[in-house]
Structure formats: C-alpha cells, structure tokens
Amino acid sequence: MVRLSQADNIAEIDDLGCGEWTTLYEFHDNGQGSRCSYSALLTPMGLARSLNSTSWDIMIGQGMPGFSQGYDDEGVETTTYERFGTEGVEPILYSRDFHGIKSRQFDLAEEFRHFHNLYHDRQNDRFIHIDDRGAEVVVAEITASQSRVLTRYVRQYMAARQLALGLFFDHRVFARIDVAEAMAAIPNREVTVADRHYSLHVGELHRKETFTRLVGKKIIFPPPINESGVWPFSTGWRGQYAEFIIRVADDGSPVTHSSDPDALANYFGANEDAPHYLTPVWFTRNVLAKYYDDPKFEVEDGYLRCGSLWGMRIDNNLPDHVVVYLGDLGRDLHYEEQTYWRHFNVPPGGTQTSDTNFRRSFLAQFTDPTAPDLVFKQRYTQLSEAWQKQFGWPLFRPLHEADTHILKQLHVPMTDSTGEFENQVLYLVKLLIDTLNDAELAKALDGALRDEKSISKLRRYVEAANYPHVDRDIGVLRTLQDLRSSGAAHAKGARFDRVQTQVGLDRETPRSVFRGLLGRANDMLAALATHFIHDPNSQARRGSSEVS
C-alpha cells in the first residue's frame, strides 16, 4: 500500500529542478510500475495557462516545426508555419521517432547548445562546455532512458531568455490488491500551488490489479536576467589575484605579494612602492606536468598556451625551475589556475633567470632555446621542413593523428622515476626511428637489402653522402632502440642491465641520462641539417637519386 501511495515520488517533487542536475527526460519500467518525465520551456503566455491543469504542456515527440491551419475572422482558411508546433511552449529536448527503422533520438535544443557553446562528444553523447581556464565541464548527458543537464546552465539560459521551465511527470505503480481497499487507504487528490499542479488517481486495470497514477508538473521560474552568466552580466574571472613568493626576508621568511597587475609598479611611474610588474616568480618544474599530460595545452619555448583561450610567457630554459613575471601571472591566468601555480611556488634562492629569457625580455633579441627538450623540438621541426623542401620527401614521416601529442609532450623528465624516463624514451624512439621514411630511403638507395631495418637504411644513405658523423649518430639511434626493446616496451632482463650500464643509468639519475640522450640527438639533428641542407658542397643537395 505504501508503494501505491507514491509517497516517495510526491516528496521528490520538491527537489525537481534543484541540486546539481536537472532531469529533462526519463523513462523506466520495472514491471511493477513506470516513471516518466519530460520538460519544456514556457513563455509568459504558456506559463499563464500551464498551471490550470495537470496535463503536460507538450508530449514526448511534439514540438517539431510544421504548419497549422485555422480560420481568420472572416472565415478564410489560413496556413501558418509554427517553429515549435505549440504556442507558448518551446522544447529544450527534442524527441524524434523514426518509425522503428532507426532508434529514437533525443536532441538538446540548438539554441541552448549555442548559448553555452557546447561541444558535442558524439561517442559518449554528452555536451561539454570549455570554461575560461580551458577546463572541460560536462553540461548535458543524453541517453535513451535519461537526459539531464547541469542545473546552473539551465537556469542561466532561462535567465537570458526569461523563460520558465516546466518539469512534467507521469509515474504509475501497479499492485495486486483490491481497488476498493486501495481507494479507502489512498484517496484521489489534486494539488495546486504557486509552482506545481498534480493529481494522484487510484484506478483498477482488471480484477484484483490496482494502479495509482501521479501526473502533473512543477514550474521553475526564470532567475533575473542579470544571472545569465554571460556578458554583459558577467565580469568573468578578473578581480581575484593570488599572492606569490617574490623574495626572502632577512629573517628567512618568504615575502609574498598580490599578482594584481594594476597594483604593481611599472616603467611609467605607477605604484612606486610596490614590486615591479616584471618581478620574477619561481616555480619547480613540476608545475608543467599538468600541461604536458593534457593535449589541449602546449608548452612551447618560452610560452604556455591553452588553445586560443589563454597564453602566458614563461622562462622554461632553466634545468630545474620555471620562472614567470608576477604581473603576467595575474594578467594571463584565471584565479583558479593561479592557485594551481601557487602550489609549486618556491623562493628565488639567489638564482638567475635564463640568459635566453633575459635576451628576449629586456634586449628584444631573437634567441634560440637552451633547454635540451626545447632545442630538440626546434631542430626536429626545422630539419623536417627543410628536408621536405630540399628533397621533396620527408626524412621523418608525419605523425599519425593519434600520435600528434608526442612532440608536444616530449620533455626532460620532471622526476627521477624509471617510468617517466622510459615513457620519454618511447617518445624519442617514435620521433627519430619509427617515423624514418623507409620507403624513400630505400628508393634513394635503389632498393633495400634483405631484412634491412630503418636505422641500417639511414646508415647506408648518410655513408653514401659522405656524412662525417655516421658512427656517432647511428650509435645514438641504436642506443635508443636498445632502451626501448630491452626495457621500455618489454619486461626487463639481463639485456636491460647491460643497456642500463651502457647509458649510465647505474651511475646517474634518469633525468641526467635523458638530458644526455637529448643532447646527442640534438647534435645529430644539427649535423644532418648542416651536411644535407646548408652545405653547398654536399652531393646530397643535388637530389636523393644521386645518393646511392
């Protein structure tokens, strides 16, 4: 009898449209009853009549564009195009049926998606908002049995358009009980208050089977328009600024200051008693781990960016630290991003920013990077582009779309963990060995030898061109290949022990060893560019067909 009373479903009405998520559609049937809910936006005219009855203002599947016909005051038939099919009611979720030929499909209203600029993740059928930081927020989840959206985003949309939201429900419960007994315990009733209208009805399906039906709606009224969360009613994230350590006091305690750029001194006389805008703030290199791990970020030489949303100048040409100017932290980073950086903030410790950064920032000089990972990316890209232009084919084949993150994420390990070291070794192997252009190298050599691998082809190619660093550079490629095959990509054994000793992992830290490998790779890239691209006397310049 308690289940027939639908007490839980009635109590649930208070929570509709509240909390983190708002359900726009739901249907479940467990054989003992069913739950069904739907929703729509209501204009002032639609709202005025909505609470007059428990009937839904729009049924599932209605609300599609089409024509209506009627008669004017003179009795003439007229045909009118209707955007939503029902005057005063506008779907926020469209239900489309394809007559059993295709599965039913639910579509989130296009204007709602465009208002919040939602990305459709088709694989998971959810909609994502990218906020000012670049963080991805799942705003809506659409499935065949339930569709829901974050309440905050629905209310912002309602505020912007000044539309109410009608949340409709039709819940049914069945039980094998005498209907007279049920009606005595659960009387029919109808409730109408300011924000809801629903009824509970007891009925009989057939002998000894009784049902109750709870049907009606709850209205969520629109917030004021200034709560729409977008310009001009939102000032964005400006106005909050974290404090960072800028120096150490005489007693050894850290001295902090706000990163608010408007509260800092500059070269034009502002805030003379405050620290300068260009005060360097120091961080451990681990601050960059988050950005290397997420492909939407890119750590470039002297710059960090998140797509086209934001970017910030950084000095990442130091071996153990990253330095950012105090004013840039406040100007370029969202407050929540500032708080992330603050976790890695350390005192200056008497160290200096990199010479590269000084030349770029204060002397306005074009300066090459010095950090080995940044040097590698520059030389790898330059050699690839120049080789393609020189010979008409790439020495390193372009990365597959699924691997485009590799060059971006290549970096000197942040820690001395073996796992991070091996992961970066795998990246180097993919860039320098797996992408070697086997087909073009073989063509330039008039064919490959039996069982000849990529590195061996490259060796014959550069030997034929009188390249002066054959043993040195082929050696580093074979070392990388050995590191991968002996440990990074397979279970470790005696061979790994030998390779580990060969590269110095038994004597030096993984970070130090990787720096050394990058240095050797950088020497190779520079030498290849000098010999094959820049040396006018190199026979290789006359075309790949002559290198044989």
List the helices and strands and how they pair.
Elements: H1 2-5, H2 7-12, E1 21-29, E2 33-42, H3 44-50, E3 66-71, E4 77-82, E5 89-90, E6 93-98, E7 102-108, H4 110-115, E8 119-121, E9 126-130, E10 136-142, E11 146-150, H5 151-161, E12 164-175, H6 179-185, E13 189-193, E14 196-206, E15 209-220, E16 243-248, E17 254-258, E18 280-284, H7 289-293, E19 297-300, E20 303-306, E21 310-313, E22 321-325, H8 326-332, H9 335-342, E23 345-346, H10 355-362, H11 372-391, H12 405-409, H13 418-434, H14 438-444, H15 454-464, H16 470-488, H17 494-503, H18 510-534
Helix pairs in contact: 11-18, 13-16, 14-15, 15-16, 16-17, 16-18
Which strand-content bin applies to the residues? Answer: 25-35%
* Percentage of residues assigned to helices: 25-40%
Instruction: Describe the sheet with the most strands.
Output: 11 strands, antiparallel
Using only CA atoms, what is the Rg?
A: 34 Å
What's the end-to-end separation, in Å? 91 Å
* Low-confidence residue ranges: 541-548
**Large-scale geometry:** elongated
What's the pLDDT, averaged over the residues?
A: 91
